Amino acid sequence: MAAALSLSTGHDRMMIIYATLAQAAAPGVSGSTLSGIVFQVVVIIGIIYFIMIRPQQKQRQKHEAALRGLKKGDEIVTSGGIIGKVVFIKESTKDGQPLKAMDDRVTIESGESRIVVERGKIGRVGGGPAPNANA
What we know:
There is one protein chain. The chain is of the alpha+beta class. 40% of the residues lie in helices and 24% in strands. The strands form 2 sheets. It has a 5-stranded antiparallel beta sheet with strand order 6-5-2-1-7. Strand 3 and strand 4 form a beta hairpin. The longest helix has 38 residues, at 31-68.
């Protein structure tokens, strides 16, 4: 015959009570509940993607296309806020073909000075107001 458990201390009694409550509070997860949770997580991730991530990707691609299409005479604003006109673009080449990389050197004229910046550090092409000026 099995020996009886000794419940002489209060600590042992509390452990048994906690174990019993934990088993009662955690019912078995059924397949329908699990699939519902998975569906909700997928929907939330989809909403986040289409509201936050996708618009940022489109905006970045549009900005990079504008930077790659940069030409002499364009008015630009650098990330640091310097406004100027493009005077010269020193493009890197590979196998004799221009690359139009983001680390190309762009010489701009601002006031009476000339400044050399990297193509990737140009914040905006064109002299109009910032796109988020009214927002």
